[in-house]
Design a protein that fits this description.
440 residues; mainly alpha; Growth Hormone, Chain: A; 0% strand
Length: 440
Amino acid sequence: MASHPFAVPNFRAYWVARLAATLGQMAMVIVIGWQVYDIARQTMTVKEASFQLGLIGVAQFLPLLVLSLFAGWVADRIDRRWIARGALTLEAFCALSLAWLTYSHTISLPALFGIAALLGVARAFASPALGALAPNLVPKAILPTAIALSSLSWQAGTVIGPAMGGYLYAAADWLAYAVAGALFLLSLLMLMLISPVPRSARKFEGSPWVQMVDGLHYVRRNRLVLGAISLDLFAVLLGGATAMLPVYARDILQVGSEGLGHLRAAPALGAVVTAIFFSWRPLKTEVGKKMLAAVGLFGVATVVFGLSAPLLVPALGPSAIGHDFAPAVLLSLAALFVLGAADMVSVYVRQSLIQLYTPDEMRGRVGAVSTLFISGSNELGEAESGFLAALIGPVAAVVGGGVGAVLVTILWAKLFPELRRARTFDPPANLEIPPKEMTT
């Protein structure tokens, strides 16, 4: 029997596939945001262009909102490999279409909004299928390690992808999309290498609609899972500093598209350093308390980032911004580094708890609910930040969001004592679906 997930060929192919797909997705997210803001600023004010950033978040979230329950139900009934393969094919089409439109100088706001919505459709199906596939690929004895590695590949792609997208866009505006398309094709190839995998006995009761909403019912009844998912939703929804990076790069720190790559690289570096540390010394004790502390630190780092330029420019003058080594830029990079490291801790703990405390026959549907919450925090967080920035300005929106994330962490620590009491990743010996009469 394999002693490590990477000793299993199917898992190796899966890990590369998930990393490549996430890198491509996140590279596109940052470039789409930059292009929307840049095109809008040609004819709009900062606040009006920020509002467009909010709308692009809505365009990506609405397909997830509409399709997530159905996608989770499909992931529990159909071969998860083929669901992910189909979704990646659509994502590759979107990336290569944007590459061509940008290369031919025919890119426009309607095209960006339309393709962003198509990406939302693809992600609605890909996320629960890929998330639920990992536990089917390895023996149960090494399942916790496999889930942790799967979470790390997703998080690493989440933070490295945007930085990569920013640098590639600075080199050539179409290049980020072309590389994203190549990554999606690589991911598709890796998934084609995964052989058929065994599935646990599936128990489906009631109509298709009842089965679809069972994922919601399970999350509601399992307070540990509910607390972990909802904490991310509200903390990141409020503390969405990364959604404002195009505004900070162009108009506040004044470092341009190349500086945008640096700003996105900072949380990526923080997350990678943390991931390397976990590969050497994985978390084993007091995992719930550490997750709560990490989310609180995420909020504090968001506040520091938001205030970097407003605090230093009055004191130091114009030299505080405008180039890579300006004091306000360096402080922003340090805050984003800490933000990325804290986010990696949170995601590592949260995803491991959710997967390990969910029976296999429910993983697709619970994964869909988790995807909906995560996308709610990301895409709706972008929308909230964009709309709020249009009302009160980008700096106030970022700082207020960071304060909100800290307050949410304190509140969740009291509302969900199960999070504080989660000492290890070990699930119950006989994990079962909580009875439907059990309430929160």
